């Protein structure tokens, strides 16, 4: 289904995992994409795959914590594509995975800058163009919203702030015709998680498949979501099918948590 036919979508945090999946699923849905990340090599790899699908990919190396770099991203998009129909704030930084009582405050501030303030910065810069098109913003959040396990406190802080940001922006931008929603994935079966499961398997003296099976058993659907499955939910939120949905958070976790 060409849910995003001939639309222009900016995607931050493009890399080999979910960022790649977002770009490819948007392209399959008919969109041209503007890809932003700090590493140009990763952008070019994904851009080639988008081109192979018959859609246009514009690459803009961007540090989203830098105001001038974000301004350049939006300006390049408007110069080369003429409009912005959607924005996916996918870039993130993992804060210290330790108890809040022990976490380094500077590292926590760095994570907040990437996870929250950068998303606000980019959304504000895109807002005028999005308003012209009745566009949509999707924030990529995390299932960390649904639990309070030890060592995840700083991560939950930043992602909870991102959720509050999305809800407030939905209220502020709604009168201008711009929708703002959140997608909260759980496990994502991509390279980083595969590496981690390999590590756990070596530590325990078992196979990576056993680690996968044990983890998947905690999920209602019995399998861990893959990047394209997360990305399909994002495509839905960007599309006209979600035209009456704003200020919402959709969990995409295979049933790991119920909300």
UniProtKB/TrEMBL annotation:
Origin superkingdom: Bacteria
Entry's Gene Ontology molecular function annotations: oxidoreductase activity
Pfam family, one: adh_short_C2
Keywords in alphabetical order: Oxidoreductase
Gene3D superfamilies linked: NAD(P)-binding Rossmann-like Domain (3.40.50.720)
The protein, known as: SDR family oxidoreductase
PANTHER family, per database record: EG:BACR7A4.14 PROTEIN-RELATED, ZGC:101858
Organism: Actinomadura barringtoniae
